[in-house]
């Protein structure tokens, strides 16, 4: 299996905008489901676009996982570290609101679970303040406000049977939920897929299209990862 092309992603508070992270770099783009995508912020170092994260594990070695909450706020994960930030889209006025703490300190329910030492990926549910967390071949749903489990830790293929016998059954590198529809993009290695889901149901989980190379469906991400990934170094603060 190829190394992750994308390490983390989260949707912006701005409609149809998403942040993608590859190690210590990121881009922001506008996506159109089933259509074209457009770069809004060129490839940059995380420490350049998110000054509040400079000198933290979220800038170096980078962000492993992230998910959005209310407004312009999001949880970021790097190794066993977690921070809650206001990412202030379109500015460099981001700030850390809580943390950095260990995942176990930020989310005590995750202590002594497979998620305590790191989370591979996550996406927001369509229901309340719930979010799906993924680690290797397992997943769990938690309420990020109460920080309690919603259900139990299960195998990916139990909750998302449409992923059985695919590269995603043993892990998901990055994912993010659509802004409006109950659908999500999943990324693994150099491939991605779009699925439809309904919380608490497995018979309503289905693919929307085929598993495809990331660069076929997201051509704007060319150069995000690998030896040709050279971040822009602006002379003035970037429009994040």
What does this structure look like?
There is one protein chain. With 240 residues, this protein is mainly β. The chain has a single domain, classed as Hemopexin-like domain (Hemopexin), CATH 2.110.10. Helix content is 7%, strand content 40%. The protein has four helices and 18 strands. The protein has helices at 46-49, 103-106, 156-159, 214-217, and strands spanning 8-11, 17-22, 25-31, 37-45, 65-68, 73-78, 81-86, 95-102, 121-124, 130-135, 138-143, 148-149, 154-155, 174-177, 183-188, 191-198, 201-207, 212-213. Strands 9, 10, 11, 12 and 13 form a five-stranded antiparallel β-sheet that branches. A hairpin with a 2-residue loop joins strand 15 and strand 16. It is globular and about 45 Å long. The two termini are 32 Å apart. The relative contact order is 0.18. The model has no long low-confidence stretch (mean pLDDT 92).
Total count of strands: 18
Give the SSE order as H and E letters: EEEEHEEEEHEEEEEHEEEEEH
Q: At the first level of CATH, what is the class?
A: Mainly Beta
Report the total helices.
4
CATH topology, by name, is: Hemopexin
Q: Which structural class do you get from the secondary structure elements?
A: mainly beta
Return residue spans where pLDDT drops below 50 for at least 5 consecutive residues.
Answer: none
Basic shape = globular
Quaternary state of the chains: single chain
- Look at the structure and name the CATH superfamily: Hemopexin-like domain
The total tally of domains equals 1
Distance between the termini: 32 Å
Organism: Vigna radiata var. radiata (Mung bean)
Protein name: Albumin-2
Hemopexin repeats: 3-53, 116-163, 169-221
